[in-house]
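Write out the 3D structure for:
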Amino acid sequence: MIARDQIIGVVLAGGRSSRFGSNKALYVHQGQTLLSRAVQLLTPLCSKVFISGQCDDYQQLGVACIPDLITDIGPLGGIYSAMLHARSPYYLFISCDMPYMTVACAKRLLSINEEVQITYWKDCRQSIQLFPLLISRSLLSAIQQKIEKKSYNLRSLLDTSVSQSFLISPEEDNNFANINYRSDIVC
């Protein structure tokens, strides 16, 4: 199990939310924003939590924000920026649009040995669920190389590293729901 003091948590909130119609990170669901819910989820698991995204939009939350050093390259830009900004052996990433994720699911990613560089989830069809995602600092140079080659596909990083996946049980399936449209939100 990776210790809490070796992990920095990062909520990825830099997307455009074009399908949602407004900044979904700031959407209030069940009394709190999707972004504050994600920060709250990471807090017990990580020594420090950051938000990766448009910092002007998120100052009112009182959580340090990391702007993307390279914009418009998707989640890889936020991951890269966070790893350059804050030194840590491990980083636990979650996207802001997963309001049903649980601490227990995210915590399971931490039950690995130190040789593993990246840990993720797969569903019953063996489809990869990218978030939450645990990444070792040892992958920083590989991420930098991908960016230099303009290869922004995060999934390809899974094939070129020492990885471990966990299988999502049928009971956990809803925890991985991703909110892209307002109609995706379950009241």
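The chain has one domain: 4-184.
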